[in-house]
Amino acid sequence: MKARKILAGSAALLAGALVLSGCSSSGSGDGGDGGDVTMTFWHNSTTGPGKQYWADTAKAFEDANPGVTIKIQSIQNEDMDGKLQTALNSGDAPDIFMARGGGKLAAVVAAGQAMDITDKLTDDTKNALGDAALSSLSVDGKIYGVPTSILPGGIYYSKDLFKQAGITDTPKTMADLDDAVTKLKDAGIDPIALGAKDAWPAAHWYYFFALRECSQDVIAKAASDPNFDDECWLRAGEDLQKFSKTDPFNKGFLTTSAQQGAGSSAGLVANHKAAMELMGAWDPGVIASLTPDKKPLPDLGWFPFPATAQGEGDPSAMMGGVDGFTCWVNAPEQCADFLNFIAEKKNQEGYADAFVTLPASQEAQGVVTDPALKDVLASYNDAAYVSVWLDTLLGQNVGNALNVAVVDMLAGKGTPQGIVDGVTNALKKG
């Protein structure tokens, strides 16, 4: 992967989305005298090949490290942040847990809850992952996690439904997307699936309008000196409000979940009930788990978020994040060994296959064969820069306020100015 401009935050460099029975520090052995060690591991894959991958990978690590036991608990993705924060605050956290970078990781580090693994990663791990991926889980120049996948966002779509509606090319501009929405509605097809019940999928639309409206400097400043003073943040809300008035989303989108069941937004795409979904690079795997045969959707395609008619953002810029894992500050030393283990080429390839996603390891990216993901990877490699998701960048409290404000506007209970005000008020509260 060629080098790219990566936005830097006040505490973390930002590039380009897992859980155990019992968050028990008392279950961890000291690991220093050759005694048996038990580590707890939280992840967010609750079904299918992804859940099996982690079971198999943990078993392989145990086999290679006699005396080490890894206890796994899988937690629904939408519940992860809240449960993890509770566990960390209680001082009884899992030894290995999910990390997504940005303000969320910076807050964990500032609270002294994550292990500095800068000197615990092997040269092989560092070389395979590269500076860009590792910087996404770094704070003040120190590494606090190992990424497993890169997850830039964009629009997934059904080629068959596009053809049925007479759409011959993927939208390049918002005018093109408006035209595609009209054609799909005329053909009796819901244009866009949206799981607004979970808030963050709806907020993704605002994030991408902001990425097109705001300059790179403004996006970067939001990491180091967060505020929504620039007019571009308001324009992004106005863009989304205007687009939403074309009724592009599925009926009942405000009560639709993102990833749980055939009626979720991913499920609507998986079962050809809607033509598009704006989502990160984990989406093909989620969609595959929700098709009737539990296999990848054969006609799934992808295109970047369209360019707007105005705005100061580079139209090739992308937004997304990484999925990765970090060690609790009091985890045994074998935790870092496990992070090195999951970064190995064969394990990164296995991860990409199981989750139908893009591996963080540059060495493993040859395993990507899914056409949609190959298109994502090509755009990622050519992007002018990649910003982390806005809610991750801003941290959990401010990010949640942003997401809720976006949903309120889409529900007719808020305004574009309300989004700006919601973020401003959350920042004042700290």
UniProtKB/TrEMBL annotation:
InterPro entries xrefs: Bact_solute-bd_prot1, SBP
Q: Which Gene3D superfamilies match?
A: Periplasmic binding protein-like II
One Pfam short name? SBP_bac_1
- As recorded in UniProt, coiled-coil segments are none
Q: Does the keyword section mention Signal?
A: yes
Which SUPFAM superfamilies does this entry report, sorted A to Z? Periplasmic binding protein-like II (SSF53850)
Q: Which keywords has UniProt assigned to this entry?
A: Signal
Q: Where is the signal peptide?
A: 1-28
**Would the keyword Signal be found if you checked this record's keyword annotation?**
yes
- Protein name listed in UniProt: Carbohydrate ABC transporter substrate-binding protein, CUT1 family
Q: Could you tell me which species this protein originates from?
A: Paramicrobacterium humi
